[in-house]
From TrEMBL:
Its cofactor is Mg(2+). Homotetramer. Its EC number is 5.3.1.5. This is Xylose isomerase. The active site is at residues 99, 102. It is an enzyme of class 5 (isomerase).
Length: 433
């Protein structure tokens, strides 16, 4: 182990009355709700990038964190892995996630970079076998390096497209070797700053072909995990092509990939798109695209993606309600794509940020399960649409405008509006949280 977290205890469940800050109050991993344990429902994962690789900068200031594994050598990469698995085991999480750039140093050539990734994948594999911790998903960083400043798959330079394709291949290979349950394609800089230098049609065709190649390669190597796209509306490009769930669904339909790719949905990105998290989850579920989630929150006084750890049980409960309604996760899970505040410098801060967020998620899921079991929301929903269950209403959907108009006049229809009862339902939800 790394020694970095020495003195920080392992987090265990002590119950809601515990005053121990290093204990779970709500996350009892063995508690059974809705037919599965909380561990099986929530499928927690730690994000390698924010927790182990992020230096603590923001748009107005540089590094605030000093980690002994920060550096560009393979020795640093292995020290980071040692610290990572020390963190994972103290939290008793079942999974982690990573970008290639999080776990290996950049080489002087693509071949050297690939070899670095392969070496560290071997090292990670040994740790996974020893601890039983799995890989929820892997992905490629196609946005940080200056070569990606105009995108990866959508780049006007075909050499950058080629580099990006080779990088994704190496990352899918790594994910496959580590038995990852998903592979995520994060849009990064797939978008544009100005139409003055952008060919929208060409870039869309490039992105569609790139994703088709990824699907083809998945089947070629026998990767059984899910392919996921992560919608994001802004940051860093002004107009992102993967703006939200609806936009990505239109893209997938355009290229015939809607049965091959699902979505990894992030709370912070949903807010930036002008939606709620539960809206994006419900829409994805209705389209058959719900795959996995990145759990975080934004600062509602800031206009960017602040990636804070979740701390609102009501928000989380409504999100897990939609996930449970959809049948729960299969290959997906709850990845904490969240980072410490720049002033949270101590090793214990990183542990407590995750353990507190795990408690919030557990409390939210328990509330969601209680609401689902009670059935009040579903009963209200069924009552609201009950008129559509009649034979006459169903027949109308198979009719035509002229016939419907004739019926309206013949029957003298003059419908009165009915209350949506929003406040009553909000009061109902508050009973559980």
């Amino acid at each position: 182990m790394s020694g970095y977290f020495d003195g920080v205890p392992h987090i265990t469940y002590e119950g809601p009355d515990s005053e121990n800050p290093f204990a779970f109050r709500h996350y009892d991993p063995d508690r059974v709700v809705h037919g599965k344990t909380l561990r099986e429902h929530l499928r927690f994962a730690v994000a390698y990038w924010h927790s182990l690789a992020w230096p603590g900068g923001d748009p107005f200031g540089g590094q605030t964190f000093e980690r002994p594994w920060f550096g560009d050598s393979m020795a640093h990469a292995k020290a980071k892995a040692d610290a990572a698995f020390d963190l994972f085991t103290r939290l008793d999480v079942p999974f982690f996630c990573f970008h290639d750039a999080d776990v290996r140093p950049e080489g002087d050539s693509f071949a050297e970079t690939r070899r670095n990734l392969e070496e560290i994948v071997d090292y990670l594999g040994q740790k996974m076998e020893r601890t039983g911790i799995g890989l929820l998903w892997g992905t490629a960083n196609l946005f940080s390096h200056r070569r990606f400043m105009a995108g990866a798959a959508t780049n006007p330079d075909p050499d950058v497209f080629a580099w990006s394709a080779a990088t994704v291949k190496s990352c899918i290979d790594a994910t496959h070797r580590l038995s990852g349950q998903n592979y995520v394609l994060w849009g990064g800089r797939e978008g544009y700053e100005t139409l003055l230098n952008t060919d929208l049609g060409r870039e869309a065709e490039q992105a569609g072909r790139f994703l088709s190649m990824v699907v083809e390669y998945k089947h070629q190597i026998g990767f059984e995990g899910a392919l996921l796209i992560e919608p994001k509306p802004q940051e860093p490009t002004k107009h992102q092509y993967d703006y939200d769930v609806a936009t990505v669904y239109g893209f997938l339909k355009r290229f015939g990939l809607e049965n091959e790719v699902k979505l990894n949905i992030e709370q912070g990105h949903a807010i930036l798109a002008g939606h709620s998290f539960e809206h994006e989850l419900a829409l994805a579920a209705s389209l058959g695209l719900l795959g996995s989630i990145d759990m975080n929150r934004n600062d509602y006084q800031s206009g960017w993606d602040t990636d804070q750890f979740p701390n609102s049980v009501p928000e989380v409960a409504l999100a897990y309600y939609e996930i449970l309604r959809a049948g729960g996760f299969t290959t997906g899970g709850t990845n904490f794509d969240a980072k410490l505040r720049r002033q949270s410098l101590d090793p214990e801060d990183l542990v407590l940020a995750h353990s507190g967020a795990m408690d919030v998620c557990a409390r939210g899921l328990i509330a969601a399960e209680e609401m689902l079991e009670d059935g009040g929301l579903e009963a209200a929903r069924a009552e609201r649409y009950a008129g559509w269950d009649t034979p006459e209403a169903q027949a109308m959907l198979q009719s035509d405008l002229a016939s419907i108009a004739n019926r309206v006049e013949a029957e003298g229809l003059n419908p009165d509006p009915r209350s949506g009862r929003q406040e009553r339902l909000e009061n109902y939800v508050n009973r559980f949280i």
